[in-house]
Design a protein that fits this description.
The chain is an alpha+beta fold.
């Protein structure tokens, strides 16, 4: 036979695909690939829409979609370039200055903010006419001659509506009280009283000039495309582009966990699809061996066969991927239509960016799981046409290596986090290894078990014993699929519950600052008398960094704008001998009572990032004119989303409160106050006028909103994943249907009854599913623990009932899927099998 050309190869490949589809032998593989594409695209598109909606919601807490921070007004050329992207701009100029009542002598250092029209771009600025009165949405900006003040300034200076406030050279009228301001941090670095004035009033105040400690923030808002273009604009030195995630640690932590949960859902779907494609392709390659052997007898060359098979797989992938893409796009639309009202979130239109990536994942599945076994059929010897047993094929490791590489690539590309991909990949490899070991041990021990059972039991276990390699491969594939299904259940029921438990209903939503030492006992008695749980105040002093590692420093010593801004204000420090579960130590160890009086310092990882600190470094701080040098003893990571009082810098007792230090000391405390008891705050102001209450309900609601929305999204994503897993499981069982047809036909020809064959096959499926389910349950729990401890930073303990449930679920699911396939197997006439029609 002469070497066929490209046209002949294409024609033969198309004919072979058409014949394979007509006979039904390709339908299982096409179904598996289509399900993989549909599931990945539906989940990918829906996840992308949820992610963009969550990120947009996070912007409400920043007050904008993004902010550019600097120490000077943004150059006009840069503002023009930003406007050219289509983004909206609103500038906010902030600086500290002393303000006073026009008719009084009291003064107060406050942060003055001059805002342009449209502030804030995201979220709602809420105002009131009196403390804790009815709220109203603010107009675009304060009117000329007016000033809006926050609660702390209102109470400190004894203001009321209509009072005159001296701001530099201007006397402004207090018209509103600021109740809720998007973009103002909930931490202790921004606790100074603040006020808002019209940006046009700033020149008249005479407060802006050389030496002014300005902080200029340009808020940006717009479409994702406009924001992406704005982020690409080159900023002058000294400016920093800030997004909602890197501006707020508690929002960033919640967003990171949200992405991890969504990625776990997609990874579970991919594991299901990969297992189905691998097993289906292996069964398909077994059928190809006879055809390849016949082609070789007729004179076809290896190159022609290889090109033909490669083209078949490629065309199969494109067709199946295209069909799956259409189903997936429609599926995500249905998913979004059902999920959006329940999640109470407006989803943006679907973007097409995930589609090429998902189609690439489908092709990667083909290359890793379908192509190696199909191309392995090229090695079939011509003698196989006459005697199958004489065709001894060499086992090559490249197929296994390709599958492992494909799994690793799929996880890495989809996870978006090397750590998350490593945990899932390690769990999958461990599961596959354990499953393979258990399957091998089972097959080796079948001889003794078969002898003790009835006819059906011996027949079912005999099927496993006769196909040792195929049985091991089936158990591994079924186990990985069951692990993915169980992992979905574990994540939904355990990890999400742990995440929601991090913000229980009684999470502190009020912070008290400015408590004097002599007010602690009266304040505790005040709250105890009104049924509020006992307060646990914490001390706080303020200091300014003057030297680092023995060298004097100031804001100009650092190039990073964020570090400059951080250094340019006083630090809040505290002391403690104990640390709660909201601290995780990265370096060094926490101290105890023995550390009292030692000049040690425990720093948060944010301070390490800003100041490039390491253990043993020294910081010199100025406490009201008294210098004190402290040595870094340990580094911790604070869980800011716990909303408990915490500090970047902490010393042991007996250091900041030592005799001879005259640093002003105040105490802070947090507590939970139900909304129906807000009137209590009015009493608090009357009895303790110097104490300021900060309402954190807005920040808490933002984090809770992210948690609730992501739980709602995962409810539907996991439902889709579970449904896909059930269908894929049936595809796995269907992959070996041809062998069942052949064996059943022979047994029926030899006189076996349908009842014996049915019970034997059910016993086989039950054993395979039970073993795979037991090990998969153990692996799913181990993987969930790894995700909880190493990626999501959530508590998680053992769940013994999951092992029993996994075993029973595996046996029931695989048996049920197998029984659906049995009905057609048992209906095949013996003469059809003996004539070779089902081979």
């Amino acid at each position: 036979m002469s070497a066929p050309g490209t046209a002949s190869t294409v024609r033969f490949a198309l004919q072979r695909l058409r014949r394979g589809w007509t006979s039904g032998e390709l339908r299982v593989l096409v179904l598996a690939l289509a399900i993989a594409a549909a599931a990945a695209i539906a989940v990918g598109l829906f996840t992308d829409r949820v992610r963009r909606a969550l990120e947009a919601g996070a912007g409400e807490q920043l007050g904008a979609d993004a902010v550019i921070n600097g120490r000077d007004p943004l150059p006009e050329s840069t503002r023009v370039a930003l406007r050219a992207t289509g983004a909206r701009l609103v500038a906010v100029t902030s600086f500290p200055s002393v303000v006073a009542r026009v008719d009084g002598e009291d003064t107060q250092l406050a942060t003055i903010k001059g805002v342009e029209a449209g502030y804030p771009l995201r979220g709602a600025l809420l105002l009131a006419r009196e403390p804790f009165g009815a709220t109203e949405t603010a107009p675009p900006q304060p009117a000329a001659g007016e000033v809006w003040v926050d609660l702390r300034l209102w109470t400190t200076l004894g203001l009321q509506q209509g009072a005159q406030l001296q701001v530099g050279n201007r006397a402004l009228t207090v018209s509103r009280l600021i109740v809720e301001e998007p973009g103002r941090t909930a931490g202790f670095g921004d606790l100074a009283p603040s006020l808002l004035i019209n940006a046009d009033e700033l020149p008249a105040t005479g407060l802006i000039g050389p030496g002014s400690r300005l902080q200029v923030s340009v808020q940006l808002g717009g479409t994702p495309a406009a924001l992406a273009a704005a982020a690409a604009v080159t900023l002058p030195p000294g400016y920093r582009y800030v997004t909602p995630e890197n501006a707020r640690p508690e929002i960033r932590n919640s967003m990171d966990r949200a992405r991890s949960f969504l990625n776990i859902a997609v990874l579970a779907t991919l594991l299901l699809a990969a297992a189905a494609v691998a097993l289906s392709a292996r069964q398909y390659s077994q059928r190809l061996r006879d055809e390849v052997a016949l082609l070789k007898v007729l004179g076809a060359r290896r190159a022609f066969i290889r090109r033909s098979l490669l083209l078949q797989v490629l065309l199969l992938g494109l067709v199946a991927g295209g069909l799956g893409a259409l189903v997936g796009v429609g599926g995500q639309a249905v998913l979004a239509a059902v999920a959006a009202p329940v999640m109470k979130i407006a989803l943006p239109p679907p973007g097409w960016l995930p589609l090429p990536a998902v189609l690439g994942l489908v092709l990667l599945m083909l290359a890793g799981f379908a192509l190696p076994p199909v191309l392995a059929s090229v090695d079939s010897a011509p003698v196989r046409v006459f005697q199958r047993a004489a065709d001894h094929q060499r086992r090559r490791p490249w197929g296994v290596l390709a599958a492992v590489a494909a799994v690793a690539a799929l996880l890495w590309l989809q996870a978006g986090s090397l750590k998350l991909a490593a945990v899932v990949f390690g769990g999958a490899l461990l599961t596959a290894g354990v499953l393979a070991l258990f399957a091998w041990l089972l097959v080796r021990g079948l001889a003794g078990v078969r002898a003790r059972g009835g006819v059906e039991w011996r027949f079912g276990l005999g099927n496993i014993a006769r196909r040792k390699a195929a049985a091991v491969a089936q158990i591994v594939a079924l186990g990985i699929a069951l692990m993915a299904l169980l992992l979905v259940t574990v994540v939904r029921q355990d990890l999400l519950a742990s995440w929601q438990g991090k913000l229980p209903p009684e999470t502190p939503n009020q912070f008290l600052i400015g408590i004097l030492p002599e007010q602690i006992a009266p304040l505790q008695a005040f709250f105890k008398a009104r049924g509020v749980p006992e307060l646990t105040p914490q001390p706080m002093v303020r200091a300014r960094l003057t030297a680092l590692r023995g060298a004097e420093v100031n804001a100009d010593s650092f190039e990073d704008p964020e570090t400059r801004r951080w250094i340019n204000r006083e630090f809040n420090l505290s002391w403690t001998a104990t640390f709660g579960d909201d601290s995780r130590f990265l370096e060094g160890q926490p101290w105890g009572a023995e550390a009292r009086g030692k000049p040690w310092l425990i720093v948060d990882d944010y301070a390490v990032e800003r100041l490039k600190l390491k253990l043993g470094d020294t910081l010199t701080l100025d406490l009201a004119g008294t210098p004190i040098t402290l040595e870094v003893h340990a580094v911790r990571k604070i869980k800011w989303d716990s909303f408990k009082p915490n500090f970047f810098l902490v010393t042991p007792p007996g250091v900041l409160d030592a005799e001879g230090l005259s640093a002003p000391l105040q105490w802070i405390a947090s507590f939970y106050l139900p909304r129906e008891q807000r009137a209590l705050l009015r009493e608090l102001i009357r009895e303790f006028p110097n104490v300021t209450a900060l309402d954190l309900d807005a920040a808490l609601n933002q984090v809770r909103g992210i948690v609730d929305r992501i739980v709602g999204a995962l409810e539907f994503i996991f439902l889709f994943t579970l449904l896909a897993g059930v269908v894929v499981m049936m595809a796995v069982i269907e992959g070996s249907r041809a062998d069942r047809v052949r064996e059943t036909g022979v047994l029926r020809a030899l006189g076996a009854s349908r009842r014996v064959i049915r019970r034997g096959l059910i016993a086989e499926y039950a054993v395979l599913g039970g073993l795979a389910g037991a090990v998969a349950a153990f692996a799913a729990q181990a993987l969930a623990w790894g995700l909880a401890a190493g990626v999501l930073e959530l508590p998680y303990g053992p769940r013994p009932l999951l092992w029993l449930a996994g075993t029973l679920a595996g046996a029931l699911i695989v048996t049920a899927a197998g029984y659906l396939s049995l009905r057609r197997v048992l209906d095949t006439p013996p003469r059809t099998v003996l004539a070779g029609g089902a081979a």
